[in-house]
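From the pipeline queue, job 12 of 40. The input is one protein chain; the requested action is below.

Action: predict structure.
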Amino acid sequence: MEETHETGRESSWRAVWGIAWRSTRGGIPTLTRNGVNGVMFSLRTPAEDCARWIAELHSDRIRYAALVRTSFEEYQERLNWRISGATVMRYLTTLCGFGQDA
């Protein structure tokens, strides 16, 4: 399998749902919303459970299509660089007065 380095943002842009594993060593668990743009598994979740989730999703065309649609909506509303930049600017303005006239 080819290794990819896409972020959660890029996966949602492509309307590709994601499977993530919750870890205490980095990553951004807030990117994946269970049932909205993917699923978040614990690191202790058996591989069989993850495979079962994928198989069930792929066998249900309506559920799969809904997850693809909501993944793209997450990109449009939350997981894109325009929104991220505006959020950072809002934080800087609020916390530091950055961007405000003197």
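Job complete. The chain has four helices and two strands.
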